[in-house]
Amino acid sequence: MRKTLKLIKREFISKVFSKGFVISTVLGPIIIMGFYYIPAYFRSHDEARPQVIQIVDYSGVVGERLPDLFDDKLENGQPRFVLSPVAVAAYENDPETFHQSIEDGIGDVLLILPEDILEHGTATYMATSVTQFDLIRLVRQRIGAAVNQLRLQNAGLDPQQVRQLTMPVGLKTVKISSGEAEEKGFESEWPVTIVFLTILYMTILIYGAAVMRGVLEEKTSRILEILLSSGNAFQLMLGKLFGVGSVGLVQYVAWAVIAYGSFFLVNQSSPEMIKYVDFSPGTFFYFVLFFLLGYFQFSALYAAVGAMCSNQEDAQALSSPITFLIIIPFLITVSLDANSSLAQILSLLPFFAPMLMFMRVQLSNPAGWEIALSVGINVLAILLFTWLAAKIYRVGTLMYGKRPSLREVARWLKYQ
Question: Which of 108, 272, 340, 349 ranks highest by number of CB atoms within 10 Å?
Answer without folding.
Answer: 108
